[in-house]
Amino acid sequence: SARPVSYTFTSAGTKTLYAWAKDAAGNVSGSRSMTVIITISGSSGVVADISTPTSLDFGSIKIKESVEKTIIVTNKGTATLMVAKVEVVGADASAFKVETSRFKVNPSKVYKLEVNFKPTAQRSFTATLKIYSNDPDTTVKEISLRGKGVL
User: Fold this and answer.
1) Torsion over CA of 137, 132, 142 and 62, rounded to 10 degrees?
2) The pTM is what?
3) Residue 140: what pLDDT?
4) How confident is the model at residue 22 (pLDDT cuts 50, 70, 90)?
5) Residue 12 pLDDT > 90, yes or no?
């Protein structure tokens, strides 16, 4: 009895398969071919890809004064990057503020995310900025924030 034969494709694209039959005596039939287009599910290639610096240092700022710095959020992907939420977390989160919580970045474009630091004491402040997006492999991007309050 004939047994089915399977073939596994390892990459996407247009492929041609050739098939023939061989009988018990070793005779081989003429071949048949079929062209198929293979797509790999889940990796269509159209995805958002967030890129940011890993940290932002405000340096030394006088107490009660505030300074604003920009984080460049780049979309290195081929789909629009949709940012659903931006938040600052950590012990000193209240010393840092972001001007927006939702934005989008078209493919190969950047968004300038403004971050404000206002120290309330003579010490170092640290927090983490979290950016929640539709980047499939980085759904939450974390950026460490730091600054120092001085007299």
Assistant:
1) 160
2) 0.70
3) 96
4) confident
5) no
